[in-house]
Design goal:
The complex is a heterodimer of chains A (about 400) and B (about 600). Chain A has about 400 residues and is α/β, with parallel strands linked by helices. Chain A is built from 17 helices and 17 strands. Classes of the chains: A alpha/beta (about 400), B alpha+beta (about 600).
């Protein structure tokens, strides 16, 4: 542990690499991920590397994040090849403060871990979600609680820095069972832990099940109770809530995401990957087969690109920045990055929200930050900043 | 074809039918056989010109079309005046019938006679019209014409041998129907030498041409360019264009005795055109008013408010435009503490109300909030005067009046014999008084009940349908008023009385109704940042109470770099949803909550 060697640079760039394949698709998942049906993983990696040659040559990113899908679904040799080539193209091993790879328990083994460590990955983020067999099954996850425990043990053994993802607010969840799950995961001493409330995203199997009455809808009181209990339990174990759903040991924030929450530039490669560079938002083609086909034909896998206006950029700056429950939004940095002053644009709302005790905001101070009660009502807070005559 | 026909070669008829008994298909078949519509250009169901009608499969607005058909070497002009088919629209049926000398009584040969068909056929026979029974869908394997002939004799006293069998789908028997129209229905009567007299039986608004008036010629002759006078509205206009519906409007030089057509005079003042009014000449000898239509009796009332208060005048304009071709709508401005300025509107029935709401939103482009429907009540004041109220908010202080009378109707319900039990139970639950039971045929029964109208206007029809596997139909006559033990159920949201949610109900059911309303509000009003007490009260007595708990959590769990645009749009959508809500005090109430109170699935 100890303090971080370097700090994020406001002008640096993060690199996101998307690997969309999974063994099967979880019911709650709305990411651009696909159950693998036998297509060539090598071809996907080849296409990814062609895109890398075109878009990130010599990039020297300050952070790297391999997300999915399940990046560790790739076999060890393919992971080695990907990391080796990517380093050759953009030089991340020398430049990156933190190189994270996401993993799921069923695909975490020593062979893959050694391969990615050798390839330059220095942080593992494991999707545990639950240690209850019935809950895992209800989510359509393909691993057992024991596989999750083994994955955590391997991560603890090999990584200086690792994280675990968990989901709470399974319908009717007994708070005590959730407390025991979280305690057991905390016993593996991950440096970072993400605890998400189960959310019902548009288009997911879970949302459809709920809408047809085959899945109990969320109970807002239970969600709130669990949210608070989770915060208290993590805090007692020495983890601070630095973002709505993210906790870390001191100085172990996920740097890649921290940069995104501060609206620093990032560039994403792979199917459906998003980029935000110098004010331009870009999204790649989502379907891996279409993405590959375009690249194989010498094209750019761009799906859509937009340059939002200054007001939208400022709103998005708030949308991301206010999620940081400790540092909030810096007025001066917001001015530098968006050209607009939140205290000028949102003065009335900020004063009002301050009086309601939802934010700490003071025109003389640089920081605008949620209070603990405000963190729970963040969407309500953000809506105040939206223009009332929109659309 | 722009020539005119002498009255002896004209037949004006309408079609009386139940929903789905094939009226529109039959009309289409007529258009095809008489060559009025090119097959390839034909869109299914030509006569239903509004989107809404096609979607719901019911004809709301009467429309007219002129056909020519040759029988025994003579060419006849057949004017089909379409009638609406739903239980709410008896008034429009009456308007259509007054422009005709005869009617086809179209009956589904498998389903048989329906309660409302009986009512409409009676209406036609009361006006001494010729009624020709036509059995449609004879191609269906389960058609049962013999049994339906029993029903024809038992319900309408019509000769069983007068029925014509056909299939609008296959085309079989259609020419027989056309021949019967010519042979059995008399030609229109009228005097070509008398001053012009024509009946306005419908109208619609055309953005470019002003109001299009639908006319049935009675006496005299109308020429293009004539100056005309609307007797009731006391308005003068020039007949800029006149013509007939073939079925598209085709301009003519003249309209003569017995003909049906349209008049365009660039009329922009909606109040100048009244359905039922009489058109005559402006100069010279004027005609007398034709027997005008009876004023419609709206029996369902509700408040309609613009979601955006700035839309009040637009809403008024939209209601006026609707009133033009649906004269049965009645509206007067009213204001509500909760909803601001809006209109108290009267409708013929619930479906009518729903359709008007949709047309306002679709055609008028106005978002509206609608309050719980109510029936009119007669309040007998202490001094003996009668005050008619159309909303719970108008009910005076209980010390000011002695009693409340509510509308009660005699309901005729036609059901299959096996459904008698459940329907009897339903009627009893709804405070019905049993009158009689008559067997129409081996399998079908007509039940007659006296029931408070307020018990019918909610979901009675739906319950009837579900209790009879869809075969039950009903019809009711003009209501009379009877004293009832009625109370005003006040609904308080965060301590503020919401007149838009209040209702008048029977004292015995006030607690049950109050609980049901609060349960609905509990579900529909989103949590706020503070706790919201909900109460249902009669006078000062609280009958039920609930609490909407404070919202203490509203935060997106996951938001990363790739999600920014999507999450922003989700928030924008949420914010947009709030704008459609109405404030009661500091509580934002979605329109769904106002509507949910209507449904009485308690």
């Amino acid at each position: 542990m100890g303090t971080r060697r370097k700090k994020l640079n406001e002008n640096g760039v993060g690199l996101y690499v998307h690997l969309p394949f999974c063994k099967s698709k979880c019911r709650y998942c709305d990411f651009n991920s696909y159950a693998w049906t036998g297509q060539s993983l090598q071809s996907y990696v080849d296409a990814l590397l062609i895109e890398a040659e075109q878009r990130i040559k010599g990039l020297k990113p300050q952070t790297v994040f391999f997300g999915g899908g399940t990046p560790t679904f790739l076999p060890a040799d393919l992971l080695s090849q990907l990391l080796e080539e990517l380093n050759r193209i953009c030089g991340f091993r020398a430049s990156s403060l933190e190189t994270t790879m996401e993993a799921n328990p069923e695909s975490v083994n020593e062979e893959r871990i050694l391969a990615i460590l050798a390839g330059g990955v220095n942080r593992l983020s494991i999707g545990i979600q639950s240690l209850q067999a019935d809950v895992l099954e209800a989510y359509d996850r393909v691993h057992s609680p024991d596989q999750a425990r083994q994955a955590l043990a391997l991560a603890q053994q090999h990584f200086q820095n690792f994280s675990a993802d968990l989901i709470f607010a399974f319908p009717g969840q007994d708070p005590e069972r959730w407390r025991l799950d979280l305690a057991e995961v905390l016993n593996f001493a991950p440096n970072h832990i993400s605890c998400y409330e189960l959310s019902y995203e548009p288009g997911t199997a879970l949302t459809r099940l709920r809408d047809v009455g085959r899945w109990n809808a969320e109970d807002p009181d239970l969600c709130e109770y669990l949210f608070k209990q989770t915060g208290e339990q993590c805090s007692a174990a020495g983890y601070q809530r630095y973002e709505i759903s993210n906790f870390c040991q001191p100085d172990h924030q996920c740097l890649h995401n921290l940069a995104a929450w501060q609206s620093f530039d990032f560039i994403g490669i792979g199917a459906g990957a998003a980029s935000s560079m110098a004010g331009t938002r870009r999204h790649n083609i989502e379907r891996p087969d279409a993405y590959q086909a375009v690249i194989e034909n010498g094209g750019d896998p761009l799906s859509r690109e937009e340059r939002p206006n200054a007001e939208t950029v400022l709103f998005e700056h708030m949308l991301m920045g206010m999620r940081l429950t400790q540092q909030g939004v810096s007025r001066q940095r917001a001015k530098r990055q968006t050209g607009l002053d939140p205290w000028q644009e949102y003065r009335d709302q900020l004063v009002d929200l301050g009086q309601q005790g939802l934010i700490h905001a003071d025109g003389d101070l640089d920081q605008i930050c949620v209070t603990p009660r405000g963190a729970l009502l963040l969407d309500h807070i953000l809506m105040q900043f939206l223009p009332s005559a929109s659309v | 074809m722009t020539k005119n026909f002498p009255p002896e070669r004209i037949r004006n008829f309408s079609i009386i039918a139940h929903i789905d008994h094939g009226k529109s298909t039959l009309a289409d078949r007529f258009l095809e056989i008489t060559g009025a519509v090119d097959m390839r250009k034909k869109q299914a169901q030509m006569l239903d010109s509004m989107d809404l009608e096609r979607e719901r499969g019911i004809t709301i607005k009467a429309a007219a079309v002129s056909l020519t058909h040759v029988i025994n070497g003579e060419e006849y002009l057949l004017n089909l005046i379409d009638t609406p088919g739903h239980v709410d629209f008896a008034y429009e049926v009456e308007k259509s019938l007054q422009a005709c000398e005869g009617a086809l009584l179209l009956i589904d040969a498998a389903q048989g006679i329906q309660a409302q068909t009986v009512a409409n056929a009676m209406l036609a026979m009361d006006q001494d019209m010729v009624v020709i029974p036509v059995f449609n869908k004879m191609d269906l394997p389960h058609a049962r014409p013999d049994e339906i002939k029993d029903e024809l004799e038992n319900t309408l006293l019509l000769d069983r041998d007068s029925a014509i069998e056909c299939s609008a789908k296959t085309g079989a028997g259609i020419t027989d129907v056309l021949e019967a129209i010519v042979e059995q229905i008399g030609p229109p009567e009228g005097d070509p030498n008398k001053p012009l007299r024509a009946l306005i039986f419908d109208a619609k608004y055309d953005e470019y041409r002003g109001i299009v008036v639908y006319l049935r010629m009675v006496d005299g002759k109308l020429n293009k360019g004539d100056w005309i006078h609307m007797i009731g509205a006391e308005a003068d206009y020039e007949a800029i264009e006149i013509g007939k519906f073939m079925p598209k409007p085709v301009p003519h030089q003249h309209l003569c005795v017995g003909e049906v057509g349209y008049l365009i005079s660039n009329i922009k003042r909606l109040e100048d055109v009244r359905v039922g009014d009489t058109v005559t000449v402006m100069k010279g000898q004027r005609a007398e008013l034709l027997v005008g239509y009876r004023e419609p009796q709206p029996m369902v009332w509700c408040g309609i408010y613009p979601t955006n208060s700035g839309d009040f005048e637009n809403l008024r304009a939209a209601l006026k435009a609707l009133k033009l071709n649906d004269s049965s709508i009645i509206f007067d401005p009213e204001s509500s503490d909760a909803l601001g300025f809006g209109f108290r509107c009267g409708f013929l029935g619930l479906l009518h109300m729903e359709i008007v709401q949709e047309r306002l939103e679709r055609e008028g482009g106005i978002d509206i909030v609608q309050t719980a429907p109510t029936v009119p009540y007669e309040v007998i004041m202490n001094d003996g005067t009668i005050k008619v109220i159309h909303s719970p908010g108008e009910l005076p202080d209980p010390v000011m009046f002695t009693e409340i009378r509510e509308p009660v109707v005699t309901v005729h319900i036609l059901v299959p014999t096996e459904s008698i039990g459940p329907i009897m139970k339903l009627c009893t639950e709804r405070r019905g008084v049993f009158m009689r039971q008559e067997h129409l045929s081996a399998s079908r029964v007509m039940l007659t009940w006296d029931m408070p109208l307020s018990e019918i206007i909610y979901d009675f029809y739906d319950r009837l349908k579900s209790g009879t596997k869809g075969y039950g139909t009903m019809n009711f006559d003009e209501p009379h008023f009877e004293v009832g033990n009625l109370v005003k159920l006040r609904i308080l949201v965060n301590g503020i009385e919401a007149d838009a949610l209040s209702l008048i109900c029977h004292a015995d059911s006030s607690q049950r109704r109050g609980r049901a309303v609060l349960q609905k509000l509990l579900k529909e009003i989103p949590r706020h940042q503070f706790q919201i007490p909900l109460q249902a009260a009669v006078g000062g007595k609280i009958m039920a109470r609930e609490n909407i708990r404070a919202l203490s959590k509203n935060v997106t769990a996951k938001c990363y770099g790739g999600d920014i645009t999507r999450k922003r749009k989700l928030l924008e959508k949420q914010k947009e949803g709030k704008k459609r809500m109405k404030s009661i005090g500091n509580v934002e109430v979605p329109q769904k909550a106002f509507l949910a109170v209507l449904a009485t699935d308690d």
